Amino acid sequence: MIAKSRYLLILILLVIVPSAMAGVKETKHNFTSPTYSPNAYFWGTRQVCVFCHAVHNADQTYGPLWNHEVNGAQSYTMYSSQTMDMNQSASPHNGSLICLSCHDGTIAVNSLSNLPGPEAAGNYGTPGGPGLDVDGKLTSSSTAFVGTDLSDDHPVGITYDAGKDNDFVPKAGNPTAYPDKLLYQGLYVECTSCHNPHDNTYSDFLVESNDNSALCTRCHTK
């Protein structure tokens, strides 16, 4: 049964990973390329997907086949507002932590749980580009840098509940409908609610077009 499950997983990966790579390789998330990611890249690297994913011995805690170091104990300054009615967690959930593992600047972008080849943790490649320091961490000069102070960003760690605020669209009760399909685990507003790291079709890695604030109004009624 275990062998059969592993075989099925490999078949799924053969379909998913190439299609994901096709979307990533011409974006700034292709850290193998000074052409596509001129501000943050790593000399001597060849594998595009490995910065986030590993086929074997991945950490499933944070996401499918996850391969990047994540510090779940990192302390963040969360968004705060007197007009916020919905409940906010004390820290982001995994749907944001996977993004912050690079974007908060505390962990090197090339710090992986499993390097290509030998199965061991370490740093993959040599940092290049003005957006990285010598250790491979994003610097505050980079437009991709978010930092650990999230108080001036869109709030994350929010339990979406339109019943607490009439200015929000009620949940549909259907995971394939809006706004439910944008919510992490069907509950939370996280980075992955609005951003898709595999596809930059709509710029800023948005999950869909925000022309005329279309994405915003999936949740907000004004």
Q: Any descriptors?
A:
3 helices, two-stranded antiparallel sheet, alpha+beta
Describe the fold and architecture.
The chain has 222 residues and is α+β, with helices and mostly antiparallel strands. 17% of the residues lie in helices and 6% in strands. The chain contains three helices and six strands; from the N terminus they run αβαβββββα. The protein has helices spanning 2-24, 94-103, 191-194, and strands at 41-43, 111-112, 122-123, 126-128, 158-159, 188-189. The strands form three sheets. It has a two-stranded antiparallel ribbon. The protein has a two-stranded antiparallel ribbon with strand order 2-3. The model is unreliable at 1-19 (pLDDT under 50).
Count up the helices: 3
Characterize the main sheet.
2 strands, antiparallel
Please write the string of helix (H) and strand (E) elements.
HEHEEEEEH
* CA-atom Rg in angstroms: 18 Å
Strand order of the largest sheet: 1-4
Measure the end-to-end span. 52 Å
| Percent of sequence in beta strands | 5-15%
* Uncertain segments: 1-19
State the total count of DSSP E strands. 6
Mean pLDDT: 90
Based on helices, strands and strand pairing, what is the structural class? alpha+beta
Helical residue percent band: 10-25%
* Rough outline: elongated
Layout of helices and strands, plus pairs?
Layout: H1 2-24, E1 41-43, H2 94-103, E2 111-112, E3 122-123, E4 126-128, E5 158-159, E6 188-189, H3 191-194
Antiparallel strand pairs: 1-4, 2-3, 5-6
Task: Summarize, please.
With 222 residues, the protein is of the alpha+beta class. It contains 3 helices and 6 strands; from the N terminus they run αβαβββββα. The protein has a two-stranded antiparallel ribbon.
